[in-house]
Amino acid sequence: MRILAISGSLRTGSSNTRAIEALARLAPGDVEIIIYRELGQLPHFNPDLDTDSPPAPVQALRREIGLCDGLIICSPEYAHGVAGVMKNALDWLVGSLEFSGTPVALINASPRATLAQAHMFGTLEVMGARLVDAASIAIPLQGVSLTSDEIAADPTLGPKLRGLLETFAEAIRTPPS
How many CB atoms lie within 10 A of CB 173? Predict the structure, then answer.
């Protein structure tokens, strides 16, 4: 099973990025986590460029989405909303045939930041994502300076992320009824 993981933060040392890196370390043998690291390379969304041949970074993102069995997003909240770079990526996926029906789980690395999560759920729902609520979790990483290895090894955080992966993988294997 191939799962694409996207951090919605471009910040070096981002807790969101560390969380998805920890996921990759915790993945069972039958689950491959591919971390998408080109978020900052996507051009600003422009419908005039969203043609049969969009910009190369957009084509690459859509290709990755098409190759994955599921998508995990861990994105910060800025000014009570979805981070701009993450929203930009989602805008590029709206018209993408590869995205519709994709199983999606969300990680919130700052449990007190709930508005962006709600906005993201709404946006993804409109886009036709198959949201997996049971695999969407909040983990308290804001203000914590753990490495991705330390997050994976943490007796609270590691099992929570592993549980997300198990729940998400099972949801992907079980088509909706």
Answer: 11
- Rounded to 5°, angle at Cα 115 from 95 and 154: 100
d(CA 173, CA 70): 10
Give pLDDT tens digits for 39-85.
Answer: 999 999 999 999 999 999 999 999 999 999 999 999 998 888 999 99
Provide Rg for the chain, Cα atoms: 15
Question: For residue 95, what is the DSSP state?
Answer: T
| Contact call for residues 139 and 155 (beta carbons, < 8 A) | no
Query: Would you say residue 114 has pLDDT above 90?
Result: no
The answer, yes or no, to whether residue 142 has pLDDT greater than 80, is no
| CATH class name, domain 2-173 | alpha beta
Closest listed residue to residue 70, CA positions, set 95, 96, 33: 33
Residue 143 has pLDDT above 80, yes or no: no
CA distance 115 to 119: 6
Q: Check pLDDT > 90 for residue 170.
A: yes
Cross-strand bridge partners of residue 106: 73
Count Cα atoms within 13 angstroms, Cβ side, for 69: 16
Q: If you count them, how many residues does the chain have? A: 177
